[in-house]
Amino acid sequence: MSRLSDSMKHELKQIQPSSILKFNQEISAIPDMVKLTLGEPDFNTPEHVKQAAIRSIENNESHYTNSRGTEGLRQAASKFLHDKYNVNYDPDTQMLVTTGATEGIFSSLTAMLNAGDSVIIPTPIFPAYIPVAILNGAKPIFLDTSDNGFILSPEKLKATIEANKDTVKAVVLNFPSNPTGVTYSREDLQKIADVLKQYNIFVLSDEIYSELTYGEKHVSMGEILPEQTVLLNGVSKSHAMTGWRIGLVCGPVDVINEIGKVHQFAITSATANAQAAAEEAFKNGPDDGIAMRQIYQKRRDLLLKGLQEAGFECASPKGAFYLFAKIPANLNQDSVAFCYELAKEAKVAVIPGASFGPGGEGYVRISYAASTEDLKKAIERIQEFAKVK
User: Fold this and answer.
1) How large is the C-alpha radius of gyration of the chain?
2) Which helix (DSSP H) or strand (DSSP E) does residue 58 occupy?
3) What's 23's domain CATH number?
4) What is the DSSP string of 216-281?
5) Which of 109, 164, 182, 283 is the S-S candidate for 76 at Cβ 3.0 to 4.6 Å?
6) Which residues belong to any copy of the Aminotransferase class I/classII large domain (predicted)?
7) Does residue 141 sit in helix, strand or coil?
8) 281 and 169 inside one domain
9) Residue 219 belongs to domain spanning
10) In whole angstroms, what is the distance from residue 70 CA to residue 247 CA?
């Protein structure tokens, strides 16, 4: 190791590259692999959205945009969020267009956190929030929700805030959840909001899967507790646009002003033609996600039935496109070891539950953002693997 690298930010030494991406890369070389690993929709971006980007390129829209995003995109996104989830954000003062929700997480937490602060993170959860907190000198406080159906209870939240009230700056929510597929009802959110109202802390509410709910309409924390919520959303999942990298951060004016400073120095602005495509998606394709959602639901039901027949128990998946399945007692309970065995012996790739924090060990995350044909093949292989073991 060079002397230069020794001198780099010491918080980086506490962080390892994504275990999810590492595992996915390692098993990708195995031939005839059915990959149910990443949260990557297998649908194509809607044609009218692609055409909007092509027109943008042809019109030479290849220059810097407003750092907060184009006016047209912010207006379209504001209307979309209002019409869908009854949240009210001024497109001029309360919204930022980010390079995906991931940049939104980075810019928001970087603006919120000082060294010595702490962030409450209910787990199992998409792990991206954790390294960003650490990079900013903050301490993640993990709350294992596996004993409560993977829902954060207001009692546990209040007790944790009280025990750390001198340092707690923010609480992270992610729903519908990656990795469990569980979501929060209006009643659940109201109880959490009633706790948070008692304290001067943020809730970072990552709702990127809001258009993918099954059986009940998504309720946003931005409606329930707007004065303390920083809302994350975007087009990645709703319009199958992961590679376009367009996200949204919304919140109170003074909070967005501060997050906007980090955002501006991090990226300057999102790509112009990608913003044109996202504007088209929000403005003329607000319901593009419905057809995808219907197919995802059928895939969920197919996979859930097949896994249960193989002896797996699953959290009740009411959103997103993941099943969080408990490994049967007769199989290897070390989730990393189990996933390597499944990949090598059955040629099915899923993600170890340990990658998602406390409460994840003994589980695997299985993505059903894959073709029905691949899901059927995976089910057959998993059932045979569980039987011979």
Assistant:
1) 21
2) helix 47-58
3) 3.90.1150.10
4) S----HHHHSTTTEEEEEESTTTTT-GGG--EEEE--HHHHHHHHHHHHHHHSS--HHHHHHHHHH
5) 283
6) 32-382
7) strand
8) yes
9) 47-285
10) 13
